[in-house]
Every structure is written in structure tokens, then in C-alpha cells.
Specification:
The complex is a heterodimer. By secondary structure, chain A is mainly β. Chain A has one domain: Ubiquitin-like (UB roll) (Roll). Chain A contains 1 helix and 5 strands; from the N terminus they run ββαβββ. Chain A has a 5-stranded mixed sheet with strand order 2-1-5-3-4, with no helix packed on it. Chain A is globular, with a radius of gyration of 11 Å. The termini of chain A are far apart. By secondary structure, chain B is of the alpha/beta class. Chain B has a single domain, classed as Rossmann fold (3-Layer(aba) Sandwich), CATH 3.40.50.720. In chain B, helix 6 links the parallel strand 4 and strand 5. Classes of the chains: A mainly beta, B alpha/beta.
């Protein structure tokens, strides 16, 4: 199915959860902030939230250094 | 009490109305390392006077390559050293300096009185935590991700995620043994954070180009 990630179109497997998406992108759940359709997703619920056609994701990845 | 020459001088650059906005904004700075100390320096020079600065570290010799501290301050608490250094620029600052480790449980209370939050922490988990806590609030939130190494300094860009949420950096370059933190790149990121704060508070004086994502 097609979704939008940071404004760009992407394709993910049908039935994929947000956690699946995070693993697919090699991201660490604790180091990202994810908004699904403008709603922040609680880190504990990433595995329960299933992606749907035309969902819009905003993914902000953090790396160390300050 | 003597004349505050800093206040005397800054009046040349900002209108009284803008200065009033700047002086009535409390900026919360999470971390007083390379980003936090240099961002604070830029904000004080921009006329900001109200700060809440949070850090639990002491100044170490390895900080002096980029952080706004001096050799004779090694061993001091960063918040105390930073407060002293900022007061040398403008003696009339109201700095709430907290020797605390920021956690999910205390961060909202600590920054409750701030209109702006500058994320200047070291660890990726802590950066993400601060972002999650304030992403949908009414405060301006300015974070940093990706400031390791040197070279190609134009990679340090401003990304506008939402009206009140910005991320500065190249989003990739994690500080490491091969990508050490250097004064030029860290200072650029810290200065961009300060510029975002100033522009938010009094409006930009340069017409904004659409920001890349």
C-alpha cells in the first residue's frame, strides 16, 4: 500500500505496523519521534498501530551529539 | 548601580517594542554543552534576559574545544560556569540554573514557565524524549540532530517540521570517534537555534524562503 513519509510517497507491505516500518527503515524506536496523520504515536503502541492506505507519517530521527 | 552598557548598546539594533518582546520571553535550555552554552551566548547577545538552563555535568578539559567555558572553570558545574560567563556579557540576566538530569517525569514542570525550549542534549534518546514531550504544545521547540565532524558546513540546515517545531543539523552525522564534535559545526548549529528563537519572538527581518524538509 502507499503511504506518505515526510512528504514523500513510499510503499509498505499490507498489514504492516508502525513498528514494522521502523524496523524496515533500520530506526530505533527510542530515537525517533513519529506522527501518524498529525497525531503523535506513543512509543509503547508502535506495534499495535497498523498502517493504512494513504496514511501520512512524519518521522524525525535523532542522532547523538550536543 | 552602574550603567548597563550592554543594554545601552543593544538599543541601536532593535526597536523598543521588539526589545520588550525579547526581554519578556523565558527560554529553557536543556543541556549546557556545546549547543546549550553557545546558543545561550547567542541569545544573551540578542538581548534575551530570562533563562532556565538545566545540566548536571561539570566542565571537562575535553569540552574546551567547543563549549563556552574557560580553562580555569574545569571542574566547576557547567550551569554555574555558564551563568558566570553570560553575566559578563549582560549583568542583568535572570538565570534559573538547575543542576538536574532531565527526565520524562520532570521536564514539563521544569520548563513550565518557558515560552521557548532549546534542546541541546547529547544523547539521541534524550533528544527524542524532549521532542515527544513538547511537539504538540504551545512552546517553540528547537532541536538538533546531526552535528558530528567537520566540513561541508552547509549540511547544517534548519528543518521545519511544524509551525513550532524545528530540527537543526544534517540528521545523519552522529558524534563519534570518527565524527568528533568541532567548534565550527557545533557553533553553527547553536547559532541557528538562537536565530530560530529570535525570529520566532520578533518575526524574521529577512523574507523566509520555503524551508526544505
Amino acid at each position: 500500500m502507499r503511504i506518505t513519509v515526510n512528504g514523500k510517497p513510499e510503499t509498505v507491505d499490507d498489514g504492516a505496523s508502525l513498528l514494522d516500518f521502523i524496523h524496515m527503515k533500520n530506526l530505533e524506536p527510542g530515537k525517533v519521534v513519529i506522527e501518524l496523520n498529525l497525531e503523535i504515536v506513543d512509543r509503547k503502541n508502535l506495534g499495535d498501530v497498523l498502517l493504512r492506505e494513504n496514511d501520512s507519517l512524519e518521522v524525525v530521527k535523532f542522532v547523538g551529539g550536543g | 548601580m552602574g550603567v548597563n552598557r550592554f543594554s545601552e548598546g543593544i538599543g541601536r539594533y532593535f526597536s523598543a517594542a521588539d526589545l520588550e518582546k525579547i526581554r519578556s520571553t523565558r527560554v529553557g535550555i536543556a543541556g549546557a554543552g556545546g549547543l546549550g552554552s553557545n546558543c545561550a551566548l547567542n541569545l544573551v547577545r540578542s538581548g534575551f534576559v530570562l533563562f532556565t538552563i538545566v545540566d548536571f555535568d561539570c566542565v571537562e578539559p575535553s569540552n574546551l574545544n567547543r563549549q563556552f567555558y574557560f580553562q580555569d572553570q574545569v571542574g566547576l558545574k557547567k550551569i554555574e560556569a555558564l551563568k558566570a560567563n553570560l553575566l559578563r556579557i549582560n549583568p542583568d540576566l535572570d538565570i534559573n540554573a538547575l543542576d538536574v538530569r532531565l527526565e520524562e517525569e520532570n521536564v514539563r514542570d521544569i520548563f513550565a514557565g518557558c515560552q521557548v525550549i532549546v534542546e541541546a542534549l547529547d544523547g539521541a534518546h534524550d533528544k527524542a524524549m524532549i521532542s515527544r514531550m513538547f511537539i504538540n504544545g504551545d512552546k517553540l521547540l528547537v532541536c538538533v540532530s546531526g552535528i558530528g565532524g567537520w566540513g561541508d558546513s552547509d549540511r547544517i540546515r534548519v528543518r521545519k517540521i511544524k509551525d513550532r517545531f524545528f530540527v537543526v543539523g544534517d540528521m545523519e552525522s552522529e558524534v563519534s570517534g570518527t565524527l568528533p564534535p568541532t567548534s565550527p559545526v557545533v557553533s553553527i548549529a547553536a547559532a541557528k537555534q538562537a536565530d530560530l528563537v529570535l525570529s520566532h519572538v520578533i518575526g524574521p527581518c529577512i523574507k523566509e524562503k520555503p524551508l526544505a524538509r
